[in-house]
Amino acid sequence: MKATITAIAHSVPSEVYDNQWFEDKIETTDEWIRTRTGIRERHFAPEGQGVTDIILPAAQEALRRRGLTPADVDCIILCTVTPDRVFPSSAAILQRKLGAINAWGFDLAAACSGFVYGIYTAAKLIESGAVRNVLLCGGDKMSAIIDFTDRATSVLFGDGAGVVFMEPGTDDAVGVMDAILKMDGNGEQFLHQKAGGSMRPPTIETVTNREHFVYQEGQSVFKSAVKGMADVSYEIMERNGLSAADVAWLIPHQANLRIIDATADRMGLSKDKVMVNIDRYGNTTSGTIPICMSELYESGRLEQGDNLVLASFGAGYTWGAVLVRWGLPRIQSEEGLA
Ligand code: UT7
Predict the structure, then answer these.
(1) pLDDT digits 0-9 by tens, 274-286
(2) CB-defined site of ligand 1, < 6 Å
């Protein structure tokens, strides 16, 4: 039996911030941001909201589309690096807000690879029979950890979330077919948050030194990402005997259009098979892949039996590729697009 996606939805905060907004605040240009990253605008949630507030509407919509209630959820896996609090888990907070009274669950912190790690974890829990279903959430409120005075990182990120509902499939030809997941802790030095954890708890000094924000050495991460994401995406095609013609969509993590293009080139895919929305959302970390998948679904571009390659690279380093064979029928045009 294969685990399969039986509903999907996404949500982003309503407030949009274009590149010009940054031009007024830091030394940057719309042209630099567009040509180096592919980003035109992103959404930020207001202060006082946590990542669970971004996820909640998507979770509710996914359940509505599946025709189930929160009480039907068995397990919540919430992928994020911007939890509402260090503890309790954001999965527990979402459980309460959603009213998923019968669910257990946990947070999964694999940064930009959160969703690919999460979908594999959810699939294995379902396939083993340990749970009947998983509400798999990927989202981040990156605006909470962006240094808005740092031009090298602040322009890259956005807030947003996607949610998939996963259950045992009735057809072994569809579902989560394969996954290749990787990790190399040597990447820590190039992408991390300096303070706030147990090694360096918050103090007045850490706050003054702005150590609670994303620290990234962009070029080092870029070089590893180009190789890591392309290699693993090619490998998953090869080991499943798929040619470029067999792949319907590459659904890549949206960190930089140049990384996405390099991955597509390595797979031999034309641009019309690559889902890109970095221009509208920036890098929403754990949210990028489920938001992309949800937008493809909502726009009627996913067909039953489509081979989807999900691919990511992020902090850790963590990276991976997952092969999903799509099982849902096309969305009815007027359904659920509220
Ligand atoms: O999702 C998690 C994983 N993260 C990634 O995959 C991100 C990987 N890295 C990247 O996408 C790219 O490295 C960046 C988009 C972050 C940066 O692009 P880059 O082409 O690697 O630029 P760079 O860091 O080499 O900087 C080039 C120049 C520098 O100026 P000098 O030293 O050449 O005078 C930067 O100071 O661009 C400057 N710069 C900017 N200029 C205008 C950096 N940020 C900006 C900015 N506006 N916002």
Answers:
(1) 999 999 999 999 9
(2) 28, 32-33, 36-37, 112, 151-152, 155-156, 218-219, 221-222, 225, 255-256, 259, 283, 313-314
